[in-house]
Specification:
The chain is mainly alpha-helical. It has a domain at about 40-70: 30s Ribosomal Protein S14, Chain N (Irregular). About 40% of the residues lie in helices and about 5% in strands. It has helices at about 5-10, 15-25, 60-70; strands at about 50, 60. The protein starts with a helix and ends in a 6-residue tail after the last helix.
């Protein structure tokens, strides 16, 4: 179930508290502690292609832009 359809259903069940409670019990997206969707880039907010080493928490695109400023060198 996508997030948008989950929110639409919640809006429809606002006036039916018993059914809303049962819906939330079985259909709320669970809180994730690891995985792809848990990490976002500090600069742009992308979710894919992360460099978490050394505590950078950047996507690969933003890392390429600021690598020289941070002090990384490109080796051939």
């Amino acid at each position: 179930m996508t997030v948008s359809s989950y929110k639409k259903t919640m809006k429809q069940l606002e006036h039916k508290p018993a059914k809303l409670k049962k819906f939330l019990k079985h259909n709320v997206p669970k809180k994730r502690s690891t995985g792809f969707s848990n990490y976002t880039c500090e600069i742009c907010g992308r979710k894919g292609g992360h460099i978490k080493k050394y505590g950078l928490r950047l996507c690969r695109h933003c890392f390429r832009e600021i690598a020289k400023d941070i002090g990384f060198k490109k080796y051939n």
